[in-house]
What does this fold into?
Amino acid sequence: MDPHVYEQVLRAVDVCHAGSSAQSERDAAYVYCEAFQERLDCIQYAFYLLQDASRPFHHRHFALHVVETWIRKHWKACSATKDAVTYRANILTIMASHLNAEEPIFLKEKLVKVVSDIAKRSFPQRWPDMLDHLMQIWSVGPLQTELVMLVFRSIAEDCVSSTFNSTIPPARRKDLLQGLNASFPVLFPRVYRELELQYTRLQQQDAHAAAVILAGLQMMKEFLDWMPVTTPAAPDANFIAVAGLLLHPNIDTPQLLAMQIVAAECLEEYFSRSFGKEHMALLHQASLTCWSHLAALSLTGPVDDADTLLLHTHINRIVVSWGVHQLDDVLADPLPSTTLPVLQSFLSLLQTLFNHPSALLTEAQVIVWLNVLKHASCATLLPYIDVPALWTTCLDKYFKLHSPDNDDTSALEFDDRDAYNAFYGNFRGRLYGILRLLVQKQPAAALTHLHDRLQYVLTVHAAGRDNLDDLGHCTDTTTAHVYHEGMASLVDCLVKSLPEVVYETPALRHHLGLSVELLLAYHTRDPWLLFRHCLCLSSLSKYYMRDPTLYPRVFDRLFGLIVFCEPGESIAHGSPMRPTSTNVRRRALASLISICHAGPLHVLPYLPMLCTQVIGLFPQVLDSEGVLMYEMLVVVSNSLPTFEEREAFIQQITAAPLAQWTDMTPIVTSQDKLVHALETHNATVVFGLLKVLTTLYGIAKRIQITPPPSSPPPSSTSSSGHGDIPSPSPHPFASVWPVLLPNLMALIRTLHALSAPLARESLVQTTTSARGILVMSVEEINQAMLGKEQVQVVDVAVTKYARWAKNTRDICYHLVGCAFGHANIFMTTDMPSSWVQSSLLSNLEYMEHRHWKTFLSSVWLPFVKSCPPHLYGSLLQPTVWHLLSHLTDRLATGYAAASSGDDMKHDVAYLPQFAGVDIQATTVDTVSNAVFVEVVRYTVDFVEALIDAKTVVDMDSTHPKHVVVESDRVLREFILSSDALTRQIVAVLVGVVGYTDTLSCRRATNLLDRLVSALAAQTQQFHQLLGKDVFTAALCALLAHFHDVDDGFKWELINLLRNIYCRVTLGLLPVDECKGIDPLHQPVKPDSDLCFAPRQIVASLHGVQPDDVAALEQSLRTHHSTKTQKNYLKEFLETPFLAYVDAPHTLKAIEDLPPVASSSHPKPHAASTSNDADISSLFGTHHE
It folds into this structure.
């Protein structure tokens, strides 16, 4: 060893840690330290330095880091030599003899890391006596005892925890776990005795006892996940009782909270295990012991410090873990008498913590309460549940009364009010699940609570008194508004959950009517409260159907609010309206539509009155509000008894809009005239066009038709163009389309043409605000930014026309989709085909990404869903092929930009344009990425509609289902019968799988899996496509995600690879497809029916031998369980993938070791002198 090098290293480390060092000196020191670690003899310097315990902490920590790095890089080369034994002995000697009594945590953790790294590379094959060595060090002193426990913790953690086990090959993990399991009969009693001893010393204020106990708990936590469930609760070493006792020790130590937290984590881990029927008595006894310890804790009252909240959170996790994993097993039918005390104590603890001030604790319990209330034995449990208290807690917490601004517990849980409000959206949905079950069980109690809460809010908080605006009205932080907002949500929750018996029983219906009368008797002019008032009125629409005499009163109230204005506002004078006023007017209209939609037949007698009201209000409402009133009338007209009456009504209300639309023919058919209208600010034409389209769309989308029950479903033979073409049901809007569509298609063609290079260049160069039709609107930017950032408008005129262009294009697409949804359109000779070619598919190469979300969802999804089978060959096939071809090319540019991080690789025509706003370059990049993600996601939606469409049925029930209806099946069979379409679909999905958006990737993977199942039986035609292209893409995607923690996408990719390999290469069918065939003895298919590309691909992976492939295939053949097959494939791929992934956390030097003959039962060790004290009764009262 060179003394000069030694001194240089120490000087470099000092410079790195000195705050006064110049940056240049620090950089040079870093470089020297890194170069020093490349020396083969650097470990000798490190050992020499570590033998001097008087050295500064940073010197010794660097030395340990050098040893750690050397082990990672060079241990493999010397692991079978005497040098490895020497190095191991050196580090153990340092651990035993060269440490100070008080070492910092970071130094202890680094030393533990070094020892555990050696163990993970040597134990048990090349270090069979590791337990002997570590037990000798254990006996040296409390510091060494703590370190040895932490070493065992680290080894077990790296083998079991999904966060760390990707660093060790599967075979190595199995060796380590087997070695630990063989050592456990000696190790566990030693740990238990040590905990007893240190607990005694802790009560005597021993400074080191708490650290040893904490290390012991941390170690046992990692073993509890896989050791036999009987071991930690054995009578002579009941660790579960010890963990419960340590939750509330009568001691004072700075590490008390840490000990309590780890003890709680141990109990949470233990109660997440599966006990089975054979160990049910053990579960009962362990649970009772744990509940007795938890009952001794103070879990009620306000919480204003983070430590107490953290402890209560972990206590709650114990109870929730027990409820999730053990409740179903304990609730055997019939319940044995020994179970009732366990359940009684459990439910008492559960309810205590459910009422905790923390909303997060309450939310975590919801899944348990749902299991309790849904269980078949719920009636047996109800006597042990304080149901009134459960009602009160759920109802109280439905209101946002404890924001971080005024509640200490909430301030500890949420950063600000925005985070609190965001949490409440999901939290209320969870509470709704509990309330729904309570309402079903006790509808009378629900009505009482509803009336009482409503009466309290409408009387005590009838008007705002705090945090008012300049007009004296509420704001979002006003207490009265918080109560009204919660009440509106609660009314919707409770009324929606009421069983039908409430409306059939006069007494219960009268009880609900009292709440309705409370609402109708309430009056205010506060817009914030009126908005919530409208929501409450619409929630009770089902009750109005049982008492139609209420309709006039409700309609009068809502029609009065449609023209609501705050002081100084007037529609007639064109004065601007506050958002609060607009919100009230829109909400009143939406409530009217909701009420009419819920019971159109019951509202039908009042249709003349509604028409009179609407006609009288037209001069007093905005254009968008007028559209909503049209929609309301159409909803009611759906109940007119005859088709002729409905058709006449629709023709009457569409006459005026259609006349205006016809007059606009010169504008919509000419790019120049449309641009001129924008440049001259001709609002009558420009915004009149948008109003007409919105009105007609509102009418069209609200029309509902019921096909005659006798009409037969389309037959599958019609997909080939043969057979009778089914006659569509008559539609009230059918006479409107011939007038509406020609101009609509002309307008779409004009809008698409404005994106062409010449037209775009001309508009960009103009100085007028007309160029706004090419730029992204402020609303689109904010939506892409998810509301996290607001851009500043610098040119109002440009942004106004940007919004107009966006809204106009969207409404055009919506109307086309609505037209496709009306089967009569396809019966018009050549009309759909001419639209598609001349308008809808024109200039696609110039459309920006941001338009495709609506283009795909509003136009093409309805198209593929509604296109009749007899037009599949002539219309659907060429159209879909054109779209998929374009989307493949469009998405390819985005993938290239995403992989390189260079947005310039996007086609410039696809990127959004910005003008009229002050926007930063980083925001532009974020927005561009967001709109591209939308294109990818809606492309997957489109593909799904083609090959895996599902229709939701039983939507009004509590369990709606997704089923494949006949029309979806016919469409899928046609698509998959086309070679060209199938290959295009696979190309699109393969591209998506390699993209960075996990949601899209997962959906594409599942669709590919379904395609493999559907296409694998087709001999030869798609074998190369599936076995090579799809398999390779999935394998590459899996490599990128293989070491992600708890990633569902990873397992879906593994399942796709498994499905391809089993079906295409091995010719194996899954169990559910083996009709009359033994899954384990399936007939061997000829080679001509198989594809061996997947076998060649896996055989070419790093380090894979032919025997490995043969063993994998044998495992797949002999285990027909999908889960087992996925596990085999995952373990097979782990070793080669470790060689490909260059990640800092990947210890590629950990290799599998050859098996050696070693004793699986280590000899018992003599107890150290520290165990001679009489401690047999220390935990005696807690033995189970």
